[in-house]
Amino acid sequence: MSFSLETEDRQGPKRGVGLRRPWVWVFAAVMAGASVCAGALVLLEEPAAAQRPHFQMSTPVLVEAARRSDINTYLSGLGTVTPLNTVAIHTRVDGQIMKVEFQEGDVVAKGSPLFEIDPRPFQAQLTEAEGQLARDRALLENATIDLKRYNTLVRENSVSTQQRDTQASLVHQYEGTVKYDQGQVDSVRVNLVYCHITSPLTGRIGLRQVDAGNIVHAADTTGLALITQEQPITVIFPIPEDSLPAVLATLKTAKHPPVDAFNREQTQKLATGSLLTIDNQIDTTTGTVKLRATFPNKDHELFPNQFVNVRLLLGTVRNAVVVPTSAVQRSSSGTFVYVLNDKNSTVSVRWVKLGPTEKGLQAISSGITPGESVVVDGAEKLTEGGKVVAHVRAANTSDGIDK
Protein backbone atom coordinates (compact mmCIF):
# COMPACT_ATOMS: atom_id res chain seq x y z
CA MET A 1 0.00 0.00 0.00
CA SER A 2 2.74 2.42 0.82
CA PHE A 3 4.45 1.82 -2.50
CA SER A 4 1.36 2.58 -4.63
CA LEU A 5 0.62 5.74 -2.68
CA GLU A 6 4.11 7.03 -3.23
CA THR A 7 3.80 6.30 -6.98
CA GLU A 8 0.59 8.31 -7.22
CA ASP A 9 2.11 11.28 -5.44
CA ARG A 10 5.05 11.44 -7.81
CA GLN A 11 2.90 11.29 -10.90
CA GLY A 12 0.39 13.82 -9.70
CA PRO A 13 2.61 16.95 -10.08
CA LYS A 14 3.81 15.92 -13.51
CA ARG A 15 0.28 15.77 -14.76
CA GLY A 16 -0.41 19.22 -13.31
CA VAL A 17 2.57 20.87 -15.06
CA GLY A 18 1.62 19.35 -18.35
CA LEU A 19 -1.83 20.85 -18.09
CA ARG A 20 -0.49 24.48 -17.56
CA ARG A 21 1.96 24.56 -20.55
CA PRO A 22 -0.60 25.58 -23.28
CA TRP A 23 -1.38 28.83 -21.42
CA VAL A 24 2.29 29.79 -21.45
CA TRP A 25 2.49 29.39 -25.20
CA VAL A 26 -0.66 31.41 -25.71
CA PHE A 27 0.72 34.32 -23.62
CA ALA A 28 4.03 34.32 -25.56
CA ALA A 29 2.18 34.40 -28.87
CA VAL A 30 0.12 37.38 -27.78
CA MET A 31 3.22 39.37 -26.71
CA ALA A 32 5.02 38.59 -29.99
CA GLY A 33 2.06 39.81 -31.98
CA ALA A 34 1.98 43.06 -30.06
CA SER A 35 5.68 43.67 -30.74
CA VAL A 36 5.21 43.08 -34.45
CA CYS A 37 2.35 45.58 -34.58
CA ALA A 38 4.36 48.23 -32.71
CA GLY A 39 7.32 47.79 -35.06
CA ALA A 40 5.07 48.11 -38.08
CA LEU A 41 3.64 51.37 -36.76
CA VAL A 42 7.16 52.77 -36.25
CA LEU A 43 8.20 51.81 -39.77
CA LEU A 44 5.11 53.48 -41.12
CA GLU A 45 5.79 56.70 -39.20
CA GLU A 46 9.53 57.01 -40.07
CA PRO A 47 9.07 58.04 -43.72
CA ALA A 48 6.60 60.70 -42.65
CA ALA A 49 9.04 62.10 -40.09
CA ALA A 50 11.86 62.08 -42.63
CA GLN A 51 9.72 64.05 -45.03
CA ARG A 52 9.11 66.86 -42.51
CA PRO A 53 11.06 70.06 -43.43
CA HIS A 54 13.87 71.14 -40.97
CA PHE A 55 13.29 74.81 -39.94
CA GLN A 56 16.30 77.03 -39.04
CA MET A 57 15.92 80.57 -37.71
CA SER A 58 17.79 83.42 -39.44
CA THR A 59 19.77 85.69 -37.12
CA PRO A 60 19.59 89.46 -37.72
CA VAL A 61 23.11 90.95 -37.89
CA LEU A 62 24.76 94.24 -38.73
CA VAL A 63 27.51 94.13 -41.34
CA GLU A 64 30.09 96.60 -42.61
CA ALA A 65 32.45 96.40 -45.56
CA ALA A 66 36.19 96.14 -45.05
CA ARG A 67 38.11 99.04 -46.57
CA ARG A 68 41.55 100.54 -46.89
CA SER A 69 42.75 103.35 -44.65
CA ASP A 70 45.86 104.77 -43.02
CA ILE A 71 46.22 103.70 -39.39
CA ASN A 72 48.76 104.73 -36.77
CA THR A 73 50.95 102.38 -34.76
CA TYR A 74 51.23 103.25 -31.08
CA LEU A 75 53.15 102.05 -28.06
CA SER A 76 51.18 102.42 -24.83
CA GLY A 77 52.19 102.53 -21.20
CA LEU A 78 51.20 103.80 -17.76
CA GLY A 79 53.08 106.95 -16.78
CA THR A 80 53.49 109.31 -13.85
CA VAL A 81 53.37 113.08 -14.25
CA THR A 82 56.68 114.44 -12.98
CA PRO A 83 57.55 118.14 -12.64
CA LEU A 84 60.58 119.28 -14.59
CA ASN A 85 61.77 121.15 -11.47
CA THR A 86 60.75 120.84 -7.82
CA VAL A 87 62.10 123.23 -5.17
CA ALA A 88 61.71 122.97 -1.40
CA ILE A 89 61.79 126.45 0.12
CA HIS A 90 64.14 126.75 3.14
CA THR A 91 65.32 129.70 5.16
CA ARG A 92 69.01 130.61 5.01
CA VAL A 93 68.95 132.69 8.19
CA ASP A 94 67.59 132.25 11.69
CA GLY A 95 64.73 134.44 12.77
CA GLN A 96 61.01 134.93 13.22
CA ILE A 97 58.61 134.78 10.29
CA MET A 98 56.84 138.11 10.07
CA LYS A 99 54.75 137.63 6.89
CA VAL A 100 53.47 134.87 4.61
CA GLU A 101 52.96 136.58 1.28
CA PHE A 102 51.26 133.92 -0.87
CA GLN A 103 48.05 131.94 -1.10
CA GLU A 104 48.43 128.18 -0.85
CA GLY A 105 47.99 126.45 -4.20
CA ASP A 106 48.62 129.59 -6.27
CA VAL A 107 50.89 129.75 -9.27
CA VAL A 108 53.71 132.08 -8.23
CA ALA A 109 56.06 133.80 -10.67
CA LYS A 110 59.81 133.74 -10.38
CA GLY A 111 60.93 136.42 -7.89
CA SER A 112 57.54 136.72 -6.16
CA PRO A 113 57.77 137.30 -2.37
CA LEU A 114 56.90 134.28 -0.24
CA PHE A 115 58.07 134.84 3.35
CA GLU A 116 59.54 137.74 5.32
CA ILE A 117 61.83 137.04 8.27
CA ASP A 118 62.38 139.71 10.93
CA PRO A 119 65.24 141.85 9.48
CA ARG A 120 65.88 144.04 12.58
CA PRO A 121 68.68 141.92 14.09
CA PHE A 122 70.53 141.98 10.79
CA GLN A 123 70.01 145.69 10.35
CA ALA A 124 71.65 146.22 13.74
CA GLN A 125 74.52 143.96 12.71
CA LEU A 126 74.89 145.94 9.51
CA THR A 127 75.13 149.23 11.44
CA GLU A 128 77.79 147.74 13.69
CA ALA A 129 79.78 146.34 10.78
CA GLU A 130 79.60 149.60 8.85
CA GLY A 131 80.82 151.53 11.95
CA GLN A 132 83.77 149.20 12.36
CA LEU A 133 84.59 149.60 8.69
CA ALA A 134 84.53 153.40 8.96
CA ARG A 135 86.80 153.34 12.02
CA ASP A 136 89.36 151.07 10.37
CA ARG A 137 89.33 153.09 7.18
CA ALA A 138 90.17 156.21 9.21
CA LEU A 139 93.07 154.40 10.86
CA LEU A 140 94.27 153.27 7.44
CA GLU A 141 94.16 156.81 6.09
CA ASN A 142 96.14 158.12 9.08
CA ALA A 143 98.72 155.35 8.78
CA THR A 144 99.09 156.07 5.06
CA ILE A 145 99.74 159.79 5.74
CA ASP A 146 102.36 158.90 8.36
CA LEU A 147 104.04 156.55 5.88
CA LYS A 148 104.40 159.40 3.39
CA ARG A 149 106.03 161.52 6.08
CA TYR A 150 108.45 158.75 7.00
CA ASN A 151 109.45 158.42 3.36
CA THR A 152 110.30 162.13 3.26
CA LEU A 153 112.25 161.94 6.51
CA VAL A 154 114.20 158.90 5.30
CA ARG A 155 115.33 160.84 2.24
CA GLU A 156 116.48 163.65 4.58
CA ASN A 157 118.17 161.10 6.88
CA SER A 158 115.99 162.35 9.77
CA VAL A 159 114.62 158.86 10.65
CA SER A 160 115.92 155.39 10.13
CA THR A 161 114.61 153.11 7.42
CA GLN A 162 113.48 150.72 10.14
CA GLN A 163 110.91 153.20 11.38
CA ARG A 164 109.69 153.76 7.82
CA ASP A 165 109.36 149.98 7.26
CA THR A 166 107.46 149.55 10.51
CA GLN A 167 104.98 152.20 9.41
CA ALA A 168 104.56 150.54 6.03
CA SER A 169 103.74 147.26 7.78
CA LEU A 170 101.14 149.05 9.89
CA VAL A 171 99.51 150.41 6.71
CA HIS A 172 99.26 146.86 5.31
CA GLN A 173 97.65 145.67 8.53
CA TYR A 174 95.00 148.37 8.35
CA GLU A 175 94.35 147.50 4.68
CA GLY A 176 93.63 143.91 5.68
CA THR A 177 91.41 145.05 8.51
CA VAL A 178 89.40 147.25 6.15
CA LYS A 179 88.90 144.32 3.74
CA TYR A 180 87.73 142.13 6.62
CA ASP A 181 85.30 144.82 7.74
CA GLN A 182 83.99 145.15 4.19
CA GLY A 183 83.36 141.41 4.11
CA GLN A 184 81.42 141.63 7.34
CA VAL A 185 79.26 144.40 5.90
CA ASP A 186 78.59 142.40 2.71
CA SER A 187 77.72 139.29 4.73
CA VAL A 188 75.16 141.13 6.82
CA ARG A 189 73.67 142.71 3.69
CA VAL A 190 73.27 139.23 2.16
CA ASN A 191 71.49 138.07 5.31
CA LEU A 192 69.17 141.02 4.99
CA VAL A 193 68.35 139.87 1.46
CA TYR A 194 67.72 136.36 2.80
CA CYS A 195 65.15 137.81 5.18
CA HIS A 196 62.93 138.30 2.11
CA ILE A 197 62.38 134.81 0.66
CA THR A 198 61.26 134.86 -2.98
CA SER A 199 60.28 132.17 -5.47
CA PRO A 200 63.25 130.77 -7.43
CA LEU A 201 61.03 129.69 -10.33
CA THR A 202 57.54 129.96 -11.77
CA GLY A 203 55.35 127.17 -10.49
CA ARG A 204 52.57 126.08 -8.19
CA ILE A 205 53.23 126.46 -4.48
CA GLY A 206 51.82 123.91 -2.08
CA LEU A 207 50.65 124.10 1.52
CA ARG A 208 52.85 126.11 3.87
CA GLN A 209 54.58 124.15 6.60
CA VAL A 210 54.98 127.05 9.06
CA ASP A 211 52.84 130.01 10.01
CA ALA A 212 53.75 133.63 10.69
CA GLY A 213 55.20 134.17 14.14
CA ASN A 214 57.23 130.95 14.27
CA ILE A 215 61.00 130.91 14.69
CA VAL A 216 62.84 129.16 11.86
CA HIS A 217 66.47 128.14 11.57
CA ALA A 218 68.76 127.57 8.64
CA ALA A 219 69.53 124.09 10.03
CA ASP A 220 65.86 122.99 9.93
CA THR A 221 65.30 119.91 7.75
CA THR A 222 61.63 120.69 7.14
CA GLY A 223 61.08 123.23 4.40
CA LEU A 224 58.73 126.17 4.54
CA ALA A 225 56.85 125.21 1.35
CA LEU A 226 57.23 123.28 -1.90
CA ILE A 227 57.07 124.68 -5.45
CA THR A 228 56.64 122.50 -8.53
CA GLN A 229 57.12 123.70 -12.08
CA GLU A 230 54.10 122.78 -14.20
CA GLN A 231 54.83 124.57 -17.47
CA PRO A 232 56.33 122.63 -19.09
CA ILE A 233 55.82 119.34 -17.28
CA THR A 234 56.99 115.82 -18.03
CA VAL A 235 55.63 112.28 -17.87
CA ILE A 236 57.87 109.31 -17.11
CA PHE A 237 56.61 105.95 -18.35
CA PRO A 238 58.22 102.50 -18.73
CA ILE A 239 58.12 100.30 -21.82
CA PRO A 240 59.15 96.64 -22.23
CA GLU A 241 62.72 96.18 -23.29
CA ASP A 242 61.50 94.25 -26.36
CA SER A 243 59.85 97.48 -27.59
CA LEU A 244 63.06 99.52 -27.32
CA PRO A 245 64.31 98.73 -30.88
CA ALA A 246 61.07 100.08 -32.36
CA VAL A 247 61.43 103.30 -30.36
CA LEU A 248 65.07 103.72 -31.40
CA ALA A 249 64.09 103.17 -35.03
CA THR A 250 61.42 105.86 -34.70
CA LEU A 251 63.93 108.31 -33.23
CA LYS A 252 66.08 107.95 -36.33
CA THR A 253 63.29 109.41 -38.48
CA ALA A 254 61.63 111.70 -35.91
CA LYS A 255 63.79 113.31 -33.23
CA HIS A 256 60.83 114.03 -30.96
CA PRO A 257 57.87 111.77 -31.88
CA PRO A 258 54.46 112.88 -30.55
CA VAL A 259 53.12 111.50 -27.28
CA ASP A 260 49.50 111.67 -26.05
CA ALA A 261 48.37 111.50 -22.44
CA PHE A 262 44.93 110.06 -21.61
CA ASN A 263 42.95 109.78 -18.40
CA ARG A 264 42.79 106.58 -16.38
CA GLU A 265 39.80 105.20 -18.36
CA GLN A 266 41.42 106.19 -21.69
CA THR A 267 38.27 108.05 -22.64
CA GLN A 268 39.68 111.58 -22.74
CA LYS A 269 42.89 112.96 -24.19
CA LEU A 270 44.44 115.27 -21.60
CA ALA A 271 47.45 116.68 -23.43
CA THR A 272 49.75 116.23 -26.41
CA GLY A 273 53.52 116.49 -26.14
CA SER A 274 56.67 114.89 -27.50
CA LEU A 275 59.26 112.35 -26.45
CA LEU A 276 62.13 114.06 -24.66
CA THR A 277 64.63 111.33 -23.84
CA ILE A 278 65.23 107.66 -23.06
CA ASP A 279 66.90 106.40 -19.91
CA ASN A 280 70.45 105.10 -20.34
CA GLN A 281 69.84 101.65 -18.88
CA ILE A 282 67.26 98.87 -18.59
CA ASP A 283 65.82 97.99 -15.20
CA THR A 284 66.83 94.35 -14.77
CA THR A 285 64.23 93.72 -12.06
CA THR A 286 61.28 94.61 -14.31
CA GLY A 287 62.75 94.26 -17.80
CA THR A 288 61.64 97.78 -18.72
CA VAL A 289 63.27 101.04 -19.73
CA LYS A 290 61.98 104.49 -18.75
CA LEU A 291 61.04 107.20 -21.23
CA ARG A 292 60.43 110.87 -20.48
CA ALA A 293 57.96 112.94 -22.51
CA THR A 294 57.44 116.68 -22.18
CA PHE A 295 54.13 118.58 -22.40
CA PRO A 296 53.55 122.36 -22.60
CA ASN A 297 50.66 121.98 -20.12
CA LYS A 298 49.35 125.45 -20.95
CA ASP A 299 45.95 124.80 -19.37
CA HIS A 300 47.34 122.79 -16.43
CA GLU A 301 45.72 119.58 -17.67
CA LEU A 302 48.44 117.49 -16.05
CA PHE A 303 49.11 117.55 -12.31
CA PRO A 304 52.27 116.37 -10.51
CA ASN A 305 52.24 112.67 -9.51
CA GLN A 306 49.09 112.05 -11.57
CA PHE A 307 48.80 108.64 -13.25
CA VAL A 308 48.06 108.84 -16.97
CA ASN A 309 47.90 106.44 -19.90
CA VAL A 310 50.60 107.36 -22.40
CA ARG A 311 50.52 106.61 -26.13
CA LEU A 312 53.70 107.05 -28.19
CA LEU A 313 53.34 107.29 -31.97
CA LEU A 314 55.77 104.88 -33.64
CA GLY A 315 54.62 105.27 -37.25
CA THR A 316 51.76 105.03 -39.72
CA VAL A 317 50.67 101.99 -41.75
CA ARG A 318 49.55 103.32 -45.12
CA ASN A 319 46.62 101.87 -47.08
CA ALA A 320 45.91 99.07 -44.61
CA VAL A 321 42.80 96.86 -44.72
CA VAL A 322 40.68 97.83 -41.72
CA VAL A 323 37.44 96.62 -40.11
CA PRO A 324 35.66 97.77 -36.93
CA THR A 325 37.18 96.28 -33.80
CA SER A 326 33.76 94.83 -32.88
CA ALA A 327 34.02 92.50 -35.89
CA VAL A 328 37.01 90.63 -34.47
CA GLN A 329 36.18 87.48 -32.52
CA ARG A 330 38.63 85.50 -30.40
CA SER A 331 38.91 81.85 -29.49
CA SER A 332 41.54 79.46 -28.22
CA SER A 333 42.55 78.78 -31.82
CA GLY A 334 43.09 82.41 -32.78
CA THR A 335 41.21 85.43 -34.08
CA PHE A 336 38.49 85.35 -36.72
CA VAL A 337 35.62 87.30 -38.26
CA TYR A 338 32.28 86.27 -39.73
CA VAL A 339 32.17 87.10 -43.45
CA LEU A 340 28.88 87.49 -45.28
CA ASN A 341 28.63 85.12 -48.23
CA ASP A 342 27.74 86.24 -51.76
CA LYS A 343 24.07 85.31 -51.42
CA ASN A 344 23.79 87.50 -48.31
CA SER A 345 22.02 84.72 -46.43
CA THR A 346 24.81 82.84 -44.62
CA VAL A 347 28.13 83.61 -42.96
CA SER A 348 31.47 81.87 -42.90
CA VAL A 349 34.30 81.90 -40.38
CA ARG A 350 37.45 83.61 -41.68
CA TRP A 351 40.66 83.37 -39.67
CA VAL A 352 42.64 86.62 -39.72
CA LYS A 353 45.94 88.09 -38.55
CA LEU A 354 45.68 91.40 -36.74
CA GLY A 355 47.67 94.60 -37.13
CA PRO A 356 47.54 97.83 -35.12
CA THR A 357 44.33 99.23 -33.63
CA GLU A 358 43.22 102.86 -33.51
CA LYS A 359 39.99 104.77 -32.87
CA GLY A 360 37.73 101.72 -33.16
CA LEU A 361 39.43 100.39 -36.31
CA GLN A 362 41.39 97.13 -36.49
CA ALA A 363 43.99 96.64 -39.20
CA ILE A 364 43.92 93.16 -40.76
CA SER A 365 47.28 91.86 -41.98
CA SER A 366 45.81 88.87 -43.82
CA GLY A 367 42.52 87.04 -44.25
CA ILE A 368 40.23 89.83 -45.50
CA THR A 369 40.13 91.79 -48.74
CA PRO A 370 38.59 95.25 -49.18
CA GLY A 371 34.89 95.19 -49.98
CA GLU A 372 34.06 92.01 -48.08
CA SER A 373 31.28 92.47 -45.54
CA VAL A 374 31.95 91.37 -41.98
CA VAL A 375 29.54 91.03 -39.08
CA VAL A 376 30.00 93.86 -36.57
CA ASP A 377 26.96 93.20 -34.36
CA GLY A 378 25.17 89.93 -33.51
CA ALA A 379 28.18 87.62 -33.97
CA GLU A 380 27.73 86.00 -30.56
CA LYS A 381 24.80 83.93 -31.90
CA LEU A 382 26.45 82.78 -35.12
CA THR A 383 28.15 79.56 -36.22
CA GLU A 384 29.80 78.42 -39.43
CA GLY A 385 27.24 78.51 -42.25
CA GLY A 386 24.57 80.10 -40.08
CA LYS A 387 21.66 81.88 -41.75
CA VAL A 388 21.45 85.61 -41.23
CA VAL A 389 19.39 88.64 -42.13
CA ALA A 390 22.04 91.25 -42.91
CA HIS A 391 21.63 94.98 -42.35
CA VAL A 392 24.42 97.16 -43.79
CA ARG A 393 26.03 99.85 -41.66
CA ALA A 394 27.80 102.72 -43.37
CA ALA A 395 31.55 102.73 -42.75
CA ASN A 396 33.22 105.55 -40.87
CA THR A 397 35.31 107.28 -43.50
CA SER A 398 37.81 108.89 -41.10
CA ASP A 399 41.38 107.91 -41.91
CA GLY A 400 42.13 106.88 -38.36
CA ILE A 401 44.87 109.50 -37.86
CA ASP A 402 44.57 112.00 -35.06
CA LYS A 403 44.18 115.54 -36.30
Q: Your description of this structure?
A:
With 403 residues, this protein is α+β, with helices and mostly antiparallel strands. It has four domains: 1-36; 56-81 and 229-403, Elongation Factor Tu (Ef-tu), domain 3; 85-116 and 199-228, OB fold (Dihydrolipoamide Acetyltransferase, E2P); 119-194, Helix Hairpins, CATH 1.10.287. Helix content is 32%, strand content 34%. It has helices at residues 2-50, 120-155, 161-194, 244-253, and strands spanning 59-65, 67-83, 86-89, 95-100, 107-108, 113-117, 196-198, 203-205, 215-216, 225-228, 233-240, 258-262, 269-278, 288-295, 307-324, 329-331, 334-340, 347-351, 353-358, 361-366, 373-377, 388-392. The protein has a six-stranded antiparallel beta barrel with strand order 2-11-14-13-12-15. It has a four-stranded antiparallel β-sheet with strand order 3-10-8-5, with no helix packed on it. Strand 19 (353-358) and strand 20 form a beta hairpin. The radius of gyration is 50 Å and the shape is elongated. Residues 1-20, 40-54 and 398-403 have low confidence and may be disordered.
> What is the number of helical segments per DSSP (H or I, 4+ residues)?
4
User: Which parts are unreliable, with pLDDT below 50 for 5 consecutive residues or more?
Assistant: 1-20, 40-54, 398-403
Oligomer: single chain
Strand content: 25-35%
User: Could you tell me the number of beta strands?
Assistant: 22
Q: What is the fold named in CATH at topology level of the largest domain? A: Elongation Factor Tu (Ef-tu), domain 3
Q: Main sheet: which strands, in order across?
A: 2-11-14-13-12-15
Q: Mean pLDDT across all residues, rounded?
A: 85
C-alpha-based Rg, rounded: 50 Å
Largest sheet: 6 strands, antiparallel, barrel
Number of domains: 4
Structural class: alpha+beta
Which CATH first-tier class of the largest domain would you pick? Mainly Beta
